[in-house]
Write a structure and sequence with these properties.
Strand order of the largest sheet: 1-2
Shape: elongated
Order of helices and strands: HHHHHHHEEHEHEHHEHHEHHHHHHH
Distance between the termini: 62 Å
Number of helices: 20
Number of strands: 6
Radius of gyration: 31 Å
Helix content: 55-70%
Strand content: under 5%
Largest sheet: 2 strands, antiparallel
Length: about 475
């Protein structure tokens, strides 16, 4: 096996070792290829740490100012794509520290006083996830607003509601879209809860047992926008439950998006014909010129599986680790990054696509008529005529079988035909057998009545305000 050294001539921690790290081990253990994504958050945390050390008398004002100026220059290099990343320096932290020392000399070596890479990475990931949750929440809210606009537009559009993918009762498209909205609203709440629990600052917990330097952890926590410092140094550096929680939220949200995607895929098919998705979100076939494939919806449905895999990976990663930090945790970043990107991009796609879909109102209404969707309304009508529900259920079942045998809808049967099943049926029955009458009758909170749908849209907008 070959030997290697860092760009500076030796690793930053080699005092204990009698030989340099093997070149293969350097490549195998390096994380800079992916954790460099945390660089600006790492600089943010380092700047706060330097200011705190100076305030506590550990650094001189000149050393602090030199460190802050060097970190600012490094941030500019990174933003410009000019930073010299080195695999031999293992990770984002040591790359930045090495570059800082190159730029400002001895003062750069003092920045790490009172901290470890263990609390440093725990802080970086929290800063990263907090910012990403804010961006994701913004996209989720944008999607919710677009759904509300579409639900309001389609508040009167009658369509079939399904159970077991069989026509069950008539609803409106607006009512159905509000069901999607409610899923997203719970997801928004879960994101907020996750953000709140992770917003504790591990910086200053050091490797596992804190530091003997007179640091002010509350000062760094406040500067970095955390609610408070973490309370236990062992727990601060060793656990990743905040990342697991985010991965769980991402997985649940993408399951919701996947269910929406499945419905859009069905609705856009020729067999349903309920919607037409914008061309810019679809693709064609390499061999069949007539095809218009709902690729974006299918991709989101597929990407939900990635998020679920990331969650399982993080849970499995943590399940056997003793306290405190273990190198296993280097493997937490890629699934976290992937879940962040997958969720954010999926929300962006749906926020752009779904409000722009066109609803075929005529086809939706025809489909609602196809499966005796008002049968339950007829049973309820009979109950109001003092027929026991179980008897009413049997009466309507016989009426449905008769209508099906004659290829007609319940509303098409004459009063004489209906009364052969129950003398309790009178000529006012047709008010409940129409699709419009059916949806309008369910005017309670959460019901299908168009006016109730519009009221729920208004209330939902107020929740997002």
């Amino acid at each position: 096996m070959s030997k290697s050294t860092s760009p500076a001539g030796k690793q930053l921690w080699t005092g204990r070792f009698s030989e340099p790290t093997d070149a293969f081990v350097e490549r195998f253990s390096a994380s800079v290829d992916f954790d460099s994504r945390l660089a600006l958050h790492d600089i943010q945390g380092s700047a706060a740490h330097a200011r705190m050390l100076a305030d506590c008398g550990v650094l001189s004002p000149d050393e602090r100012d030199s460190i802050l100026a060097g970190l600012e220059q490094i941030g500019e290099e990174i933003a410009a794509g000019a930073f010299p990343w080195a695999t031999q320096l293992e990770d984002v932290h040591m790359n930045i520290e090495h570059r800082l020392t190159e730029k400002i000399g001895e003062a750069g070596k003092k920045l790490h006083t009172g901290r470890s890479r263990n609390d440093q990475i725990a802080t970086d990931i929290r800063l990263f996830l907090r910012a990403e949750i804010d961006a994701i929440s913004s996209e989720l809210t944008r999607f919710q607003r677009g759904l509300l606009d579409l639900a309001e537009r389609e508040a009167d559009t009658i369509m079939p509601g399904f159970t077991h993918l069989q026509v069950a009762q008539p609803v409106t498209m607006g009512h159905h879209l509000l069901a999607w909205w409610e899923m997203l609203e719970r997801d928004r709440g879960r994101l907020a809860d996750c953000r709140g629990r992770m917003n504790m600052c591990p910086l200053g917990a050091a490797a596992l047992a804190g530091t003997s330097f007179p640091i002010d952890r509350s000062a760094t926590a406040e500067e970095l926008g955390f609610d408070a410092p973490t309370r236990n140094s062992l727990d601060s550096v060793s656990d990743r439950d905040f990342a697991i929680e985010f991965a769980s939220v991402a997985s649940i949200t993408l399951v919701h998006l996947s269910r929406m995607a499945e419905e859009m895929i069905l609705w856009a098919s020729q067999q349903f014909g309920f919607i037409d998705l914008p061309d810019r979100f679809c693709t064609g076939s390499s061999i069949m010129p007539q095809k218009k494939n709902p690729d974006v919806a299918e991709l989101v449905r597929g990407k939900a599986a990635r998020a679920q895999g990331n969650l399982v990976q993080l849970l499995t990663l943590m399940k056997g680790q003793p306290l405190a930090y273990n190198r296993d945790n280097q493997e937490d970043k890629e699934p976290i990054f992937d879940s962040v990107d997958t969720l954010r991009d999926s929300l962006t796609a749906f926020a752009d696509m779904v409000p722009a879909m066109e609803v075929n109102r005529k086809r939706c209404r025809e489909a609602a008529r196809a499966g005796f969707a008002t049968a339950t309304d007829l049973a309820d009508y009979l109950v109001r005529q003092n027929v026991a529900f179980r008897d009413a259920h049997e009466v309507v079942g016989k009426a449905v079988r008769y209508a099906a045998d004659n290829d007609r809808d319940l509303a098409d049967l004459s009063l004489e035909e209906l009364r052969q099943f129950s003398s309790a049926i009178a000529d006012d029955v047709y008010a409940v057998l129409t699709l419009e009458g059916s949806v309008a009758a369910r005017s309670h909170i959460g019901g299908t009545a168009p006016e109730q749908v519009k009221a729920q849209v208004k209330a939902a907008r107020e929740r997002l305000a």
